[in-house]
Write a structure and sequence with these properties.
alpha/beta; 10-stranded mixed sheet; 16 strands
């Protein structure tokens, strides 16, 4: 009797062990793949999921319909490099000096952990494709910052076609595979889609993290002849053609996920690195401004998240959200234990997506780019520019940021301004700026937008013409003394 009872206990213990083992195996199998699709300089109003009518983005819109669209989502900077630094670290990039677009020798500090490095330690195979813009020097390239594989270019931009001046060994605009110089044929957006599909095919049996960062729709406005022909007579022909190629590449990737039955358990983030630029035919309506400034169009972006296995599709989310949240959301989804020394500024969006939590992920968000800064506190926005009066806007009533309330709501104005100052105590001075010419242009743009008047100069050529026309009658200076 005792022996039989002993055998029964052993049998029960075996069942428990097998059950736990099966649970662990199931957990490994259901750990999601994670993909960030980070496009370049796209206008808020230039995707069908945000209401665009004249540009075709059906594959992107179909993917958005399988998830949740965020209507009040922001990146942490209004230009490419700093925005990417904030996203990949989950921290305000001003904390480590990456505040402005980097010079050729500008790098992301090695003291900062990247999302790839954390997910790699947790067992993910990691890969990056396309634009890097976070350091071209040895020790700072993607495969040295947590990525197992890289195919793309290290600079902030390049041609979409093979270019004999750029595609030479040692040029940071040339294509590298890992750290080796390679060449490509055809159109770069298509090749980046092909490379992503090949990576999925090689790694479909284990969880992977993919940072897919095409240069579309950044200048130069180069497109395939057949894509241009599709939009002959279109008022935004070049952008329409660039966007159609982007649609094609996204469709190529998502079709591969569907074919391999991976889409259901893949967490996908889709967004632009900043607002639409002035030189790529983009539209940011209904917002004021554009790439490079602290008004809404500079940093509010089209953004959606899909993960069919975890939360239902359809609908929108209106809470205040940041690209800083992507890191925290990814490690939460992957059930990764965050390193103790990693202090993220973002929060996980999963509780909001699964409806376990309501409200807004953030009460306040902050921006700073050299002489310009801004804060969003609930529905109010403060824009501060050195040597200019600051402006306060109520975005609930004035989404276009035209009615300055700083003189009539002084208590709130002072409160939000104090919050910016407190936030700045945790930052360091920028390691570089964008140079006297662009610093001046950016300052002038902010002055014009704050006064609700036409922008005088959006680039160096326009600045030169403006100063020549004034013939010394005005002095424009914005560079810090």
């Amino acid at each position: 009797m005792i022996q039989q009872k002993h055998l029964s206990n052993l049998y029960l213990l075996l069942l428990i062990v097998l059950s736990c083992s099966n649970c662990q195996s199931k957990h490994r199998l259901t750990k999601p793949n994670i993909i960030i699709m980070l496009v370049d300089d796209a206008g808020y109003a230039d995707f069908g999921f945000n209401g665009c009518q004249d540009l075709e983005t059906p594959n992107i819109d179909r993917l958005a319909s399988q998830g949740v669209v965020f209507t009040d989502a922001h990146v942490s900077a209004s230009v490419c490099g700093p925005s990417r630094a904030g996203l990949i670290t989950g921290r305000y990039q001003q904390r480590f000096g990456f505040e402005c677009n980097p010079p050729s020798d500008g790098v992301l500090s090695l003291d900062e952990k990247t999302m790839a490095s954390v997910l790699k330690i947790a067992g993910y195979t990691t890969a990056a494709f396309g634009k890097w813009h976070l350091g071209a020097q040895e020790g700072y390239r993607p495969t040295e910052r947590g990525f197992d594989y890289y195919w793309g270019f290290l600079a902030g931009g390049r041609s979409y076609f093979p270019n004999p001046r750029q595609d030479v060994k040692g040029n940071i605009r040339a294509i590298t595979e890992n750290t080796q110089h390679v060449t490509f044929d055809g159109y770069l957006t298509d090749r980046l889609g092909d490379q992503a599909v090949a990576f999925i095919d090689r790694n479909k049996e284990k969880p992977f993290f993919m940072y897919w960062s095409p240069n579309a729709v950044h200048t130069p406005m180069e497109a395939m002849e057949e894509d241009l022909a599709r939009y002959r007579g279109h008022p935004r022909q070049k952008l329409a053609a660039l966007t159609w190629a982007l649609y094609r590449a996204v469709g190529h990737i998502t079709n591969k996920l569907e074919e391999d039955k991976l889409l259901d358990n893949t967490l996908i983030f889709f967004l632009s690195d900043n607002g639409g630029a002035t030189n790529n035919q983009s539209i940011n309506l209904p917002f004021k401004g554009f790439k490079g400034n602290e008004f809404e169009a500079g940093h509010r972006v089209g953004f959606f998240i899909t993960w069919p296995a975890a939360f239902p599709s359809g609908g929108t989310f209106t809470g205040l959200t940041s690209a800083l949240d992507i890191f925290a959301t990814a490690v939460d989804a992957a059930a990764v234990e965050k390193p103790e020394d990693l202090a993220l500024d973002g929060v996980s969006l999963l509780p909001f997506l699964t409806k376990e939590q309501t409200g807004s992920p953030h009460r306040a968000l902050f921006w700073r780019k050299d002489e310009m800064a801004a804060a969003r506190v609930e529905n109010h926005k403060l824009v501060r520019v050195e040597r200019l009066p600051s402006a306060l806007y109520d975005l609930d009533q004035d989404l276009g940021e035209t009615n300055n309330l700083s003189a009539t709501n002084t208590e709130l104005f002072q409160s939000i301004n104090s919050e910016i100052v407190r936030w700045e105590t945790s930052l360091m001075d920028p390691l570089w700026t964008e140079g006297a010419v662009w610093d001046t242009i950016t300052w002038m743009i902010h002055q014009d937008l704050m006064l609700n008047r036409p922008v005088r100069a959006k680039g160096p050529g326009q600045l030169k013409r403006f100063l020549e026309e004034q013939d010394g009658k005005v002095e424009v200076t914005s560079v810090k003394k």
